[in-house]
User: What shape does this take?
Amino acid sequence: MVITVFVSFMICRHSLTAEAQIRYIGLKYVISEKIAKTIGTMEMSAENVFEEVGEHMNSPEAVVAALKSKTHLNPEVRGYFAAFEPDYFPQEGTWFEPYIHHRDTSEFEYTQVGSARHDYTKSDWYVRAKKSSGSFWSDPYYYYDGTSMSGHYATFVKPIFDATGRLACVCGADITFEWLTKELQKIDKDSSNDSLLNKGHLYDIRDFYSVIIDKGGYCIIHPEGKSVSLTKEQVRILLQRKSGTMDLEISGVPSTLYYAPIEHIGWTVAVVVAKQNLQRPLFLLGLVFFLVVVIGMVVVWLACNKKFHQ
Assistant: This one.
């Protein structure tokens, strides 16, 4: 009986471990697809703004009006801008960068941010855009100006060319880490409450959280107090394999990382699960099998004892 129960336990243990792997691997792809869709929607609305700017470059006033006209398409974007080549509009001088953005209200407002202090022509995204013909995402960065505009950003960027084929400006749409964190947590919540994901399983799919890691291996989006720190070797493996699993400690808690790429942006989404959450059903399963053995042995002892006395 002990041998039979032990073999049964090992088979069930292997099956449960495989089931957990499959579920969380599937979950990472679901979350990756959902965040990619969220970002893709933002890209589409930004492209509409950029196209509007490209069609109204006859004057600075027309550019500002074009930026304002499409901002309602995605109010979650922190701001839209058009950074023009130096002296493109001679009357505006060397730095002309109209910026339509949120500050402390839900309404968009206009600011001219280009200046010698803010020489955007030396920014990485501007230099890269001049060498590109298509849109792309900038590397994450921290912007500080002493106002509520200060914070961590990522910018969707596209060069705009005039009718002669000359580079006129570089358009961009800013998103904040704060907004992206809320979007990811919303996706996590929707996934954890999905009845299909939790139906008929010993594992509780709610025992997880997601983070986003940039191309440099830095954890840029994460729940408060749950940042993931990776070694250089782990970053190399993560970027090389694109998708997989990784064991590491997070805030002293042994955990497993299930990671997959976010399409079109070059970042990685990772689902973090504490190992104790993965092992809890195995402990319960072992307890059940142990009780079966004990009860079985008691029943056999009672039966044998009764037979002996007869």
